[in-house]
Specification:
By secondary structure, the protein is mostly beta strands. It has a domain at about 35-165. Helix content is about 10%, strand content about 45%. It has an 18-stranded parallel sheet that branches. Strands 4, 7, 8, 12, 14, 16, 18, 20, 21, 24, 29 and 32 form a 12-stranded parallel sheet that branches. A two-stranded antiparallel ribbon has the order 10-11.
Length: about 350
Amino acid sequence: MYRCKHVKLAFRFELFAFLVFLAIGMFGHAALGSPVILTLSANSSGADIQKALDGLPPNGEVLLGAGKYEISQPLMLRHDYETLRGSGSGTVLHLANGADCPVIILGPPMNELKRPAAHLRLADLFIDGNRKNQKVELWKSAGDGSEFNNNGVQIWNVTDATIDHVTCCRCRSGGLVTAGVRRLQVNDFDSYDNQFDGLACYETEESHFDDLHLHDNLAAGISLDLAFNHNTISGAVLADNDLGVFMRSSSNNSFHGLTISKSRHHGVFMAQSAAPTAKGWRLCPGTQCIGNIFTKLLVNDCGGRGFQVNDASCINNVISGARFLHNILGDLGQPAKNLVLVREMVAAH
């Protein structure tokens, strides 16, 4: 009898908790309100797009129709729960001649450092950085000293953002650049013919990058150069870049299913950061690459090594199920034995 009474009370408590949870969820959804979508046509200016973005309520979206939009100042997503979406690859954001700025910035106003922007989304559009008609790389510096360069998309001081089905090409600096970012999700991103990197990440954590196509960039396909930790990159194809992956100060990341081909130098280059001093270059403490895992890695036809570890301080990294084919300088290079644990590697010269 006591047991039956106890079960009934437990059931009532669970039902009450479920109803409370449901009410909280409905209240939260109501607080954001139904999505408000503002649709703009291709005759809209960059100023028109920015005005629409700044006027959105929470959970609002600016939808750009197919066509070419001339951009002379960065489009800024700087308020929480804000979306800028195109209509596919036919929506082209073209950086005007001599604009010398990023095309899109996701983040709070540049002088506001206390709280990051959150829940921003960019989707379904094509960005042309028009690099041959830009003169300089640097645009401005933020309040924390971060540099905003002439990139396709710059994400700065943001949590829980999403990039879906976006292409960045011909940028004077990089395609997509992240700094001070957590829990970013990038899906189906194409980046090519940029002056520097297809994708560059600094101070980026707990983020996922899936289905990347990074090719024909003058520097690296992927550059990871400051506190890139606890992230996942999967399903990436990196072809005809100077380096496939350049990484320093990167720890505990997972790389799955990367295909790197025809890099002009190495497929993967892993190192510790160094800085000039009065006595010459010195390694920077705490900037080693440690605990990174590469599974199902394919590196072929590169002008350097398939995988080059530059510094003996880069330890506890793992390569599992890799294939290295026809790389000019060999497959795996490291300054000491067993810096990289290798499992099931296939090599051919």
